[in-house]
Design goal:
The two termini are 36 Å apart. The chain is 19% helix and 27% strand. By secondary structure, it is α+β, with helices and mostly antiparallel strands. It folds into two domains: 1-84 and 164-195, no CATH class; 94-143, DNA Binding (I), subunit A, CATH 1.10.30. It binds zinc ion. The site of zinc ion has 8 residues, from helix 3.
Length: 195
């Protein structure tokens, strides 16, 4: 493979592929095989090397560094069971809200381009799952700093925090085929983003 060496941001020399691949992600399963989270491939490798996790699925790529040459994990399983806080929340950002809302404007159903605060921030609206929706540019500018009722607009559904945390995180980026076995509810969510 054609490789070159470029300095990392911390000044260390790190070998990289000629064209750096997009950030790859791995699914982390609890010891019980329950999906727990999504991490970078790099983090997954560290979990495996630190004997905190074992590789369940690997891609046909290799993770390479000066001292390392291991198959790239796509699914890892923690060796020890980790209790998950029941209401641990997913960060509210463009990727996660678009995943929840199927990248559709929650006022008109068009392709969403922005996030909209239902109660505008200027009027004390929080940046929360219950107050942030995906919106198209047209609805966004039409609404301005008004409540939907003041702008004569109606939300298609009441925004709520996602119940399927890991599934939503999976949908907020590229999904590896090897994950689907473990993401039971993914199929329920998937049609919402099929567009
Ligand atoms: Zn719209």
């Amino acid at each position: 493979m054609d490789r070159r060496v470029v300095p990392g941001c911390d000044g260390r020399q790190e070998p990289v592929a000629e064209r750096p691949p997009p950030t790859r992600r791995a699914l982390v399963l609890n010891a019980t095989f329950e999906p727990l989270g999504i991490v970078s491939t790099r983090r997954a490798v560290l979990l495996v090397l630190g004997t905190k996790a074992e590789t369940v699925h690997a891609t046909d790529r290799m993770v390479r560094s000066p001292r390392l040459h291991v198959p790239e994990p796509s699914v890892v399983r923690l060796i020890r069971y980790v209790a998950v806080p029941h209401h641990s929340r997913v960060a509210v950002n463009r990727r996660t809200v678009f995943a929840r809302d199927g990248a559709r404007c929650q006022y008109c159903g068009a392709v969403a381009e922005n996030l909209d605060h239902v109660i505008p921030r200027s009027r004390g609206g929080p940046h929360s799952w219950e107050n942030v929706v995906a919106a198209c540019r047209r609805c966004n500018s039409r609404k301005e700093d008004r409540l939907p009722s003041e702008a004569g607009m109606v939300l298609r559904s009441t925004p709520v925090a996602p119940r399927h945390r890991v599934q939503l995180l999976a949908l907020s980026g590229a999904i590896d085929a090897s994950w689907t076995t473990y993401l039971g509810e993914l199929r329920e969510l998937a049609p919402a983003v099929a567009s």
